[in-house]
Design goal:
With 150 residues, this protein is mainly alpha-helical. The protein has a single domain, classed as Muramoyl-pentapeptide Carboxypeptidase, domain 2 (2-Layer Sandwich), CATH 3.30.1380. It is 57% helix and 5% strand. It has a two-stranded antiparallel sheet. α1 runs antiparallel to α2 and α2 packs parallel to α5. The longest helix is centred in the N-terminal third of the chain and has 24 residues. It comes from Haliaeetus albicilla (White-tailed sea-eagle). It is found in: Endoplasmic reticulum; Golgi apparatus, cis-Golgi network. This is Trafficking protein particle complex subunit 6B. Pfam families: TRAPP.
């Protein structure tokens, strides 16, 4: 439980530090999201290497996505993805109804505009993991009500 609190604090400080630097003129706000996504990408690559070293090869994309939703997500966020949907044409929608990185923020709509910057690292995490498994992807996040995200 202590490692979860440390991860949440580290993540919050990464986001706050990058955006604070941007406000002081050391960078642009758009670049902050890109930096967070890049950090997540590298971490995702490393985690997938570690998690799959003793795993048999995956049969197809759907098996990879199931692994991401069950094992990968559980290891990182201490819970499975709540819902996985696909159109069977390469588009997957992962839904977490109580996303840990957003639960510390208010459930009110006033923080809804700040939610994307707290999801950039996670988008990179997923994209990096998929990249290491041989899937080139575009990962985006959507928040319509806090703390749920897709």
């Amino acid at each position: 439980m202590a490692d979860e609190a440390l991860f949440l604090l580290l993540h919050n400080e990464m986001v706050a530090g990058l955006y604070r630097a941007a406000e002081q003129g050391e960078g642009e706000n758009g670049r902050c999201t890109t930096k967070l996504e890049s950090m997540g990408f590298r971490v995702g690559q490393g985690l997938i290497e570690r998690f799959t070293k003793d795993t048999a090869r995956f049969k197809d994309e759907l098996d990879i996505m199931k692994f991401i939703c069950k094992d990968f997500w559980t290891t990182v966020f201490r819970k499975q993805i709540d819902n996985l949907r696909t159109n069977h044409q390469g588009i997957y929608v992962l839904q977490d109804n109580k996303f840990r990185l957003l639960t510390q923020m208010s459930a009110g709509k006033q923080y809804l505009e700040h939610a994307p910057k707290y999801l950039a690292f996670t988008c990179g995490l997923i994209r990096g993991g998929l990249s290491n498994l041989g899937i080139k992807s575009i990962v985006t996040a959507e928040v319509s009500s806090m703390p749920a995200c897709k």
